[in-house]
Each structure stands twice: as C-alpha cells, then as structure tokens.
Records
---
Amino acid sequence: MASDGFRPLDEKLLVEYVKATPVLADKLGNQFDKLEIEEVGDGNLNFVYIVISPSGSCVIKQALPYIRCIGESWPMAKERAYFEAITLKEHGGLCPDHVPEVYHFDNSMCLIEHISDYMAKTLFYTSLLYLTTTDHKSAVAKYCGNVEMCRLTEQVVFSDPYKVSEHNHWTSPYLDSDAEAVREDNLLKLEIAELKSKFCERAQALIHGDLHTGSVMVTGDSTQVIDPEFGFYGPMGFDIGAFVGNLILAYFAQDGHAVDGNDRKPYKVWILKTITETWNLFYKKFTALWDEHKDGPGEAYLPAIYNNPDVQLLVKQKYMKELFHDTLGFGAAKMIRRIVGVAHVADFESIKEAKKRAVCERKALNFAKNLLKERRDFQSISEVVSAMEQLD
Ligand code: ADP
Ligand code: SR1
Ligand code: MG
Ligand code: MG
Ligand code: MG
C-alpha cells in the first residue's frame, strides 16, 4: 500500500475488482473460475494486466502514485489515468478503428480516497490521539458557542423522529404505521438516547457535523467538502456515519429509479463498493496516522505507558471497534431522520410515484432500525453490506 493509502491491484485483488465491476464482468462472460491474468506492463510508468476468460478478454491498466521503474521515491500523480481515459475516449470518438475502446474508468477511486483522507486527517489531528489535553480543551472551548446548531441536530436527529412533531413528515399514508412504529419502539428509544448522550458529551474531535453526501462536491479528479456550519467537538462516528448512511439511503432508493433497460444494478454495486472501501480506507489511513504519531504530543495513550506493541494493538482494536459501532449507530440514526423526520434526501424525494417511493423507504427504514439496535453485532463493513444485499 502506498503512503497515501492507494491500494495497488494485484492478481488476486483484480479478480475481486472485475467481479464487482459489472461492465468488466460482462466482458468476461461472468466466468471467474477460469480467468487467466498476466501482468504485461513493459513501460516505465504503469501496471497493465491482460485478463482472459473462455468467453472474452480485457486489459486493465492501473496508475500508481509513483513512477514504476523508479519506485515510490519518485512520486507521480496517479490522476494521469483520468487524462489517459478521457483522451482515449476523445480520440476513440474521432478514430474508433485505431484506438482501443474504454469499457470502464474508475473515477470512484478518487472520491473514496479523497473522502477517506479528509475524514482520517480532520478527525485524527483534532483528537487526543494527536493533541495534548491542554490544546484539546482550548479547541473544544472555541466551538462551545455553536450551541444552536448542535441543538438543531439534537432535535431533528435524536428527538423529533421518536415523537409526534409538527415538522415530521413521511410518505403518507403508506408509511403511517411505519412512522408510528418508530415512535413506539422502546429498544430503538434506548439506543437513540445513548447516541444522543454521545453526541452531546463526547468531544472526541472537531467534526464537520453535517457530512451527508450533499456536502461533498466531486469531479473526476477533485473532491471538496463544503458546508461545515455544524462544526464542533463531537463524536467522530457522527461524520463517518453521515456519509455512509447517505450512501445506504442511495442504495435503497435505486429500485425506485429503475426503468426498462436500466435496472440500476451496476450503480448499486458501485454504491456497495464505495461504502466498503470508504470505511476500510478510512481505517487504514486513520490507524496509519496513529502509528506515525505514536510518540507525538497526543495524550490519550501516553508513550510511557502504551509504548509496547501488544498494548498498542489492544487499544487500537478497542478504539476502532467502538468507532465502527458509533459509525453504524449514527449512520442509522441519520437514515431514520431522513425518512420520518423534517429533512429528507433527493434520492427518495425524486421518486415521483408515492407508492413506489414508500417501498424503497420502508426497506431503508427497516434496515436502519435493525442497524441501530444490532450495530454491536457487526464486526466488519462487509457484514453490513451483506445484510443490505440480503434485505434487497
Ligand atoms: P446549506 O447550508 O444551505 O446546505 P451549502 O453550503 O450546502 O448550503 O450550499 C448549497 C449548495 O450551493 C451546494 O449544494 C452547492 O450546490 C452550492 N455550493 C455551495 N458552496 C459551493 C462552492 N464552494 N462551490 C460550488 N458550489 C457551491
Ligand atoms: C431543519 S433540519 C435541516 C437539516 O439540513 C442541514 O443540512 C442539516 O442536515 C439539518 O439537520
Ligand atoms: Mg506508454
Ligand atoms: Mg448547511
Ligand atoms: Mg448543505
């Protein structure tokens, strides 16, 4: 793995990648048992694989963030792959007989990398894993004034969906009983109370506070996070959960947008891949920062006490497990508020037919309720993705 967390493909990962990329899987006739893969790159810069199945073949080229023939000591923008892909498409349009066709270009790798980078850096460097308690306390104090925005979140995320409120709305009449069930679910209320306490009491890091996917602006090679007006020192999982929760909503909304000739399946696979890789890459980058700064100023785990590999591993596992379960809990809470609370998401709202929309929303709501209650039973993000696929 390169220093910025980019994961080079190898022959084993390539099989997984091809399976998860429908356009490539189709090219290979969905026959994955008999794949022949050979790395044939003989140029100076990139890695090139020929992938052959009994019924088709393709070439997969990957640019790593350095010059191949030199190694990591000579960094080079991996976004060159983007320019290669758009030039191939442009030239291919002009002279298709003499330019290979681009079946697929993986833009998503940029978004996933950028957003995981953003979350890992903003959350790590503002936490006690990096700051002294003195610096952390003065930073927390600086944000204590953002009371009204915090109170808005307390109300619309952690309170209103669980009681009768004039602001709540849902796809009525189809979801009337579903909304009522949320208000009557004692176990759900128990869990949301725990998360509300954490949101109000845990000054873990400077969080964005509203990191839904609408706060992330993307192009092919750039990702910009906007709109941090809810920023304060709160639980890290609230940010990661917001992003992941919105992706889960997007997943469950797709069936409502399917039309003849476009079943949205490839997009659903892309969303699942994005969820998995966002968490996994965040995990890698965040723990890498922790390793890099283990002898730094951070006072959560003083080197004098924790500077041996066994105890470091233990604290890291415990910390990341709690963060994972917080992420799932806050993500679920934010999904529920987007279905029965005041502010909804375009993914569902743009499904014109109410009955169809309600079917999608109900699936998402049921998934979220279960996730909120059972979040501690999930050990990995792939288990979450499997649960989504099972419900689908
Ligand atoms: P709000 O706080 O009301 O959600 P946002 O800051 O999210 O407002 O901005 C609303 C919209 O304005 C965004 O979804 C985006 O379309 C546009 N916008 C905001 N900031 C920028 C920016 N820096 N560059 C381009 N568009 C932006
Ligand atoms: C009245 S609630 C409005 C919502 O929009 C903001 O972007 C936040 O998500 C807030 O909860
Ligand atoms: Mg060349
Ligand atoms: Mg805003
Ligand atoms: Mg906004």
---
Amino acid sequence: TSVINKIAAGEVIERPASAVKELLDNSIDALATRIEVDIMNGGADLIRVVDNGEGIHPDDLLLAVSSHATSKISNADDLFSVQTMGFRGEALASISEVSRFRIRTRTADQTQGLEFEVNTGTPGKPQPCGCPLGTSIEVRQLFANTPVRRKFLKTTKTEFGHISEQFTRAALAHPRLYMVLRHNNKVIFDLPPSDNLIDRLRLFYGKKLSDHLIWVESQLEDVRIWGYVSHPSENKSTRKGQYLFLNGRWIQDRTLQHALTEAYRGLLMVGRQPISFLYLDMPPSMVDVNVHPTKSEVRFRDSQSLYRQLLSTLRSQFLGMDL
Ligand code: ADP
Ligand code: MG
C-alpha cells in the first residue's frame, strides 16, 4: 500500500489508545448500549471492541473501511452541525492500513453477519459469518508494517494507561452505556449502566471522593453547564481528575480550564487542584468541532461568554458555602 496512506494513518492513529478511541466513538455513534473492550499487551497485540449497535449493512461494509467514506455526512453543510462523534471517515481505513484488521457485523434486517479482513491495507473477501447484532472489530499487531512506529510504543503499562484513559472518558461521557474493559483477560472495569452520573463516578473514584463532590448547574439561553466539582475545602485528594465534555464528547479547552482555576483561586491549599466533571450542552451550530483531527479541541463561537458562565456558575455555588 502507498506511503501516503501510511503517513495519513499515522496522523490519526499514533498509538493503540488512538485506535481504541476511534472504535469507541464508532460504537457510540452506532447507538450501542453495551461495549466490551479486550486488550492484549497494551494494545500492541490485540484491540477488540464489541458492540451491540446497529451494525453495518453489507452494501456499506467495503466502503466503511475505505478512506474518506463516512455515513455520517451527506453534504458540506453537515460539517457545521456535526452531532456524531466521527465524521471524517478515515478511522477504520487508517487502522486497517497499519494492522491485521477484522470486522464482523450484522444489522437487524440481516439473518447472517458478514466478516471482512484487511491485512495491513490489503483487503480480503467478505465472508458470511454467524454473528450477533452489532459490530465486533479486532485489531491485531498494530503498526505491523510500520516497524519504527511499533518499536517506539512505550511499555505495556504506559500504553494500557492511555487506553484506560480513553475508556474512562467514554464511560464518563455516557453513564448509561454498559462498558467492560479487560487487559490480558483480566477485568479492569465492568461498569453497569447508571442512570445518573454520580453512580458512575462512584464506580471510578470510590465513595470517599464522590461524597465530596458538589453538583453545579446553570443554563444561559441555549447553553447548559452541569456536573460535579470538588468541594473547595476538600484538600485530601491529589488525584488528577478534570474532565470536560461537550455534547457527549471529551474535549480540552484552555479558556474553560482557566475559568475553573479562577473559581478556586484562593480557596485551595497550595499545590492542590480542583477535581471536576463538567458537561456542556449547546446547539452544534455554536461550536466548530472540525479543527483538530482527534476532535479533542474545538472552537466555540463565543468562548468569553462560556468562560463567564462557568466562572459564575462555580462562584455562585461556592458563595453560600461554609469554606
Ligand atoms: P467516521 O466515524 O468518521 O464516519 P470511521 O472510519 O470511523 O469513519 O467509520 C466509517 C463508517 O463505518 C462509519 O461512518 C459507520 O457507518 C461505519 N461504522 C464504523 N464502526 C461502526 C460500528 N461499530 N457500528 C456501526 N457502524 C460502524
Ligand atoms: Mg469514526
């Protein structure tokens, strides 16, 4: 396969965790209610994501794995109102370009599933298979044909740490999803669906931390900010935990990070960081998510107004408190 394809693949898939992120996004887009992730050796040997989502129709399967094929955008205007996680149509193409890739999928209107393999960019022939409703994707020997990249993978522990972080972001963004993560056949997380965020937070961070979180919420026109933050006088935990989600996807944002820091200024012991799980909901037209290949950075139409909204949401919450 071409060098250009391999280079392009590297932009999206830099390590096993990037593949895990893309596969989780796809399962979420496919409206799965259950996602199981199996990892062997930090993802270097196997990444398997199995979902019970809507599956891929046989007519669309080959297309799904080829470059710039996405079922999620039908015209250029859609780019400005992206609701789903994926929209570039290159994740599966990129992953299958640099691994031994196998997909099995079945939609509700099919009695038989379809299996399709791609060996480092070389597609096999789709075969019928017995398969439950949904999609199962296996990625073996990631970077098998890009030895330098494979060699530069960090230790199993480090790579699995990145995978676990991606899994955590998806699990916190979607508490209603049943999610399982196994590493080398050992269960790391087994998360039953939670109706509310705090139950899921408790599973991740334990009762001690979750009991010290306070609920914050505000709505300003179409923009809702909600979630949990640590009590300003909660100084015991040094654990890093600042999560921000926009319309169901994890993002990073300097301006909002700054608002958080500002709200806690003078309240925390030196060296302590607030813990936060903050969710923004706003109409997709108020934000451009198409600025970063992994979509982790976005451009808000009015970032200053968001800054003020978050700061005042937190400050007014802290105001009446005994600090
Ligand atoms: P994108 O998500 O940007 O559209 P991808 O390469 O991630 O591109 O996926 C290509 C297409 O394959 C998707 O548009 C979708 O139609 C289909 N697809 C991928 N994964 C799944 C899945 N787990 N369930 C159902 N459809 C999927
Ligand atoms: Mg995708």
